[in-house]
Amino acid sequence: MASTVMRKVSLRSLASHKLRLILTVFSVVLGTSFVAGAVIFTSTVGGAFNSIFDNVAKGVSVEISAVEQQSSGIPNAVVDDLTKNKKQLGIDRLSTGNTGSVTLADASGRAIQTGGAPSVGLSYEPADTAVGEQPTIVDGRAPERSGEIAVNSEAASKGDLKVGSKTKVVVGAGLSKPMEVTVVGITEMPSSTGGYVGVLFDRASAAKLFSDGKHVATVDLTARPGVTDTQLRDAVHAHLAKLIEQQGQKIDLDKVYQVRTGEQVREDQKASIDQFLTIFRTILLAFAGIGLLVGTFIIYNTFSMIVAQRNRELALLRAIGASRKNVSRSVLLEALIVGVIGGVLGLALGIGIAAAMIAFTESQGVPSNGIEVGAGAIGAAIFVGVVVTLLSAWIPARRASRIPPVEAMRESTVEPGAGSLRTRTLIGAIIGVLGIAALVIGGLGEGTGPAMTVGLGAVLAIVAVVLTAPAISRPVVSAFGAVFEKPFGTVGKLARTNAVRNPRRTAATAFALTLGLMLVVIIGTLGWSFKGTVDSAVDKGLRADFVVTGTNNMPLPLSVVDYVKEAEGAEKVVAQAYGAAKYDGHDVYLSSPYGGNIGDVASIDVLQGKQELPGDGLLISDTTARDNGWKLGQHVMFVSTDGDEVPTTVTGVFAANEAIASMMVGWDSYEKLVPNVMKRISGPVLVVAKPGVKADDLRTQLEDATAEFLTAQVQDRSQFKNSISSQIDQMMITLYALLGLSLVIAVLGIINTLALSVVERKQEIGMLRAVGMSRGQVRRTIYLESTYIAVFGALLGTVLGLAIGVPLVRTLAHWGLDGVVVPWALIGGTLVGAAVVGVVAALWPAVTAARTRPLEAITAE
């Protein structure tokens, strides 16, 4: 009976305080919507990719490919052996393929932009010898000789190309030069996405462009009737293992070749995209978690105030027979209803967020087949909304149940459990000391271990702030409140008194802003430090007057260097050729100067040996030497992606320089380590002008020399720095946009707290109005109170952000960060912004307070 009565009381309480209900629900909606949006977006994109991968290797029984993507591929000798033993192994058809990255020009001669989607060249296989599904020619014919291509319809439409169009193709790696080609066919490809560019070449041309003539990228097989795909795979695997043994090679087959059924190829493709989507989903859910954490403080604050305002009501219920359990259940029932409503509305908003994200990614070439709202997204939104709300309301509900009826009816505005903060502050101070120690110790080191120590210190520091913030709020708010008190007189003093009256509430309200601005400062410190490193690396490390790079981080073929050298005003032209290899079983990435001596275009501080690289030499940075234990004169054995051992000798050690690679080998070693089709430029082509040549003249010469390469762009030193910094800025803006969720919730929290505070202080405000306070003075009081809370939260966030961000940057010096750059302009802007946020958040509560009628307020219960 009592529980039924309490349910009715809870429902009527919610119904009679609709505004309070809306504000509380909205804070839940914002947090849960990002959770729902993240789940819906990743499941939708994942489903679209899975549908595409269902067409990969379709009709292929077994595919053979190299384990190392940077290798030359499958030797022709292996293909010949398989062809000779087709019948014995159960092979019906055998087909080889080659592929590589390309850039295709549109009708106007400019590169077709893919928006991040693949742009690849493929070999076309005639239907009578093809294995698996081939692109369908929908207009024209297939390419038959050099200089002919077929293009997928989406790319043709985007590039205004049609059968008979003359255009240009640039292969993104190797030593190839731009090709003049004719479009002879338009295709439909099963794996085509929004920005995808697929260029078909005849087999001979593809082999010449994308292989060294001695290898192929893949070998596709179909099984003879009566032979299953699995049986064929096992037979081919055993045959290749025997072939390697006969050749006297002591290598593990599975470390060189992948022998997979078509189904395995499709599943591996799906697994790779699922891994990427899992990382992306984790990032989105991390920001959603931040929003939920901020929302938790708001909901907790809201229910604490609600319980405080209902003390008399709850005490009366206790007096007429309601148990402690009945009271706590009453409060939790309200929280449950708020959580369910917030979860459902959060799901709806999450669908909208996912739709916006999908629309954006579709414009960038990422596929989708419409929004997929599964049971997982629905369950996640409602579950998170309910759990977060119930946890946030549990402490206020527990406090409410412990209020003695007589004490509660004596004073309705006393917050339950708002006793001394001494114990809480003492515990927080101890944790804070431990956090500071971890941050300092971590900041003194470099690498993963110190970074993890900083992470531990960050967690401890945040917990310490949560515990000590109420005690800190009184002196801090009083201090800067005293400054504002002078120009505003009595109004300023009253606002300061209101802000410090309930330190728990002030701290809980401000912490929502603290957390958001802490992350803004940390990200800002990282971003500005990265940009500072870039500026320092270019200013101190490069001697070049101009650089030539690929747009959108596209690779450039080595032949670009030869074209750049044709510019009359260029005295020195050097690039770094990029490649991958293995050392001691681990992947390593190295480069080799191409076109000249790297010291002619970059500043190298040689610590030992010399900078000139002999053909089998190895020039390394001091950090590389330290990490690997290498010394001058030491012999280092690298293994190519094809499995060949290539010996080198350390001939020089230089001070780490972010402008150049930390590991450079001589050209002879590079040629043995990196297949021709994988040779490409790493970073920019560096150009030093001849004495007396005007910058504008050299720029024009360089632009003319590289025009054929479509994606090549010419930049001076300042432009080069700005282009890298702009990429960092874009990343930071994206992170700030995601953090905007927590800041929106923080503003909502201040509005919510002030609105409930106005209701709580209705009699007080009425009394002030009765003794002569004007409506304008009431509004200014609320404005100032809100500003004090917001600025306090911003100050805490700034201090906490710097305390974490500075040592974090110091630990990253191991990976190239040059030093800490504190974003003072950003910090100043956030503090000013916090004051503005305080005023904006107070607009509606202040107007509500100013409209309070004195007589009605004084007589109100």
From TrEMBL:
Residues 22-237, 506-704 form the MacB-like periplasmic core domain. The chain crosses the membrane at residues 21-41, 279-303, 331-361, 373-395, 426-445, 451-472, 510-530, 735-759, 788-809, 821-844. Keywords: Cell membrane, Membrane, Transmembrane, Transmembrane helix. It is found in: Cell membrane. It holds the Pfam family FtsX. InterPro entries: ABC3_permease_C (IPR003838), MacB_PCD (IPR025857), Macrolide_Exporter_MacB (IPR050250). The keyword Nucleotide-binding does not apply. GO terms for cellular component: plasma membrane. Its main location: membrane. PANTHER family: ABC TRANSPORTER PERMEASE YTRF, MEMBRANE COMPONENT OF TRANSPORTER-RELATED. Belongs to the ABC-4 integral membrane protein family. This is Membrane protein. It comes from Gordonia phthalatica.
